[in-house]
């Protein structure tokens, strides 16, 4: 719950361990490696190496250099490269977590949401033969109507709000009637 130092709008959503396990299992399957044993999910992802490997497996060469050593700056660069790769791959901006969400562990729920968004985007890449994550996104189901069909609906009164039977203005006299006094 929000403490005195964090306003309500900054509080991360409730983490779902089952979703995190599902995301972790998918990443492990895709990259062909296990997460380090005994290391929490958010710590294993924090340096960006696993996330960069994930993107390179989904689309080889999308990230040219993954920093595996160096200071915090190099590891944060991995997260920046990961973000750019996600956008190139087709993940919507709204589905991406901010670097601080993972680096400072402010919103791990959003990190998991991003992983699921990548998994859904994989459905749109026929060259990817591996597993996808989450439900398949819907595709456009465009319909063409003739002019005659479109015109046929113009005479219909929509009845979403009820019925139009007996709808008259009879009996509408609310409050006192208006008195008009002439000659004053």
How does this structure look, described?
The chain is built from 7 helices and no strands. The N terminus is likely disordered. It has 184 residues and is an all-alpha fold.
Provide key terms for this protein.
184 residues, mainly alpha, disordered N terminus
- Strand tally: 0
Evaluate the radius of gyration: 28 Å
User: What string gives the helices and strands in order?
Assistant: HHHHHHH
Oligomer: single chain
Tell the overall outline: elongated
Give the distance, in angstroms, between the N- and C-terminal Cα atoms. Answer: 69 Å
- Uncertain spans: 1-11
> How much of the polypeptide forms β-strand, as a percent range?
under 5%
What is the average of the pLDDT values? 84
Report the structural category: mainly alpha
List the helices and strands and how they pair.
Elements: H1 17-31, H2 41-46, H3 49-58, H4 72-89, H5 99-103, H6 108-121, H7 147-152
Helix pairs in contact: 1-6, 3-4
Question: Nutshell version of this structure?
Answer:
The chain is mainly alpha-helical. 40% of the residues lie in helices and 0% in strands.
